[in-house]
Each structure stands twice: as structure tokens, then as C-alpha cells.
Amino acid sequence: MICFNTYPNHYRFRNAVAVALLLTVNNSIAQTQPAPAFVDFDKLAAQPGTNIIHSKRGDEDVTELQRGGVSVQITRRGDKIQTLGVDHSGHGAVLCAWQIYIALRAELDTCFAGKYPELRDDISTSIGAINKFIVTNSFLPTSQNEVEASALAEDMKLRSPIAKMPLDQLAKVCQSGSLGKMVIQAARATHTQRQKSTDDLLSIPRPPVLNPCL
User: Fold this and answer.
1) Same domain, 180 and 107
2) Where are the alpha helices (DSSP H) in the chain?
3) What are the tens digits of pLDDT across the range 27-40?
4) Which of 44, 59, 123, 184 has the fewest CB atoms found within 10 Å of its own CB?
């Protein structure tokens, strides 16, 4: 991933926090969903490096899945479920990096059209690598097509609010947005540095989660 000191919080990109792709188990933000009965915990437990802990807490059944420095806690109460995933690997939360890359590419195309072509290529390559990582390491079965469709939907969601924005307003937004500063910072890094950063992000097989995010 590209390392930044701040998280993109401009209003145009606030929807980047939502990831519809991984539904429950891979979502690091606690939320209530129908219990995914199709999760085969015995099969997951048989995978190398995976530890699964079951416990009871009042009327709640708690299952914690641990792999590669990531912990995903699944709390069941009746037909409802809450999930919370946290990456402790030291290599970064994969879904956080995925969202930042998508937001940065949208920013490049919107505010820096035609500039930094090598950076844009590197970002697209990183998104592709993360897509494959998600398919390989997701606790919930997902296909390459599903992941790529989710990435495209995320990209379109970021761009749609500014599609009809007047040029003068767009210019002001581009000048004031925090993502623009991140683009310039990323452009100052070399291709090798950017590639090494992504390689480090994906160096350990683990569930892709969002938390902690920058």
C-alpha cells in the first residue's frame, strides 16, 4: 500500500468507507446481518495457520477466527450476527488500502487528468493485486468477477457526486481536497518504492479486513 499520514475524509469520498463486497465475516465494522450458515468452520479450521475459538457469553455464541495476525470475531444471537475484524499483522488492513487506492485513482482521474501516468498504472496494478488477494484469503467464498465488480462499483460511487459539478466548483474542490495532497505525496515516491509497499501489504496470507484504517 501507499503509506499516508492522514485518511481521505473529503466529502466526495466519504462513501468509500462502505464495502458491500464481503458482507459479514470480512467486514471490520460491527453490524447485524442474517447468520451465514454456509460458513464451514471445520473446513476453515483445517487450513494451515488458522485458529478458531468457540465460546458462550450469555445468550450469545461467539466464534473468533484467527489467521496471519487478523482476528475476526463473530457474535451470534438467535438469527442475527455481528462481526468485527481487526488486523494486528503490522502490514496494514487490506480493505483499508483497497479503498484508499480506489479513491486515489478517482482523484487522479478527476483532478490530475493526464498527469502522473506511472502512478496511475501503479495504483491500478495494486488494486488488481489486492483483488486477487481478497479472492484467495476471504473467509467467505467469492470470485474474481465479484471482487472486480465491487471495486468498479466503489469507483463509480466515488465519481458520481462530481459528474455534473461545474468546472469552477470542481477546481475549488480539487485544490482543497486532502486526497490531492496524498496524490502528490505518492507521486514523489519511485515505482520501486510503491511496488515494495504493496508487496509488503500482501506478504502475509490473512483475511482482508478494514480495521484499523488510517
Assistant:
1) yes
2) 41-45, 94-111, 117-137, 144-159, 167-176, 178-188, 191-201
3) 333 333 444 555 67
4) 59
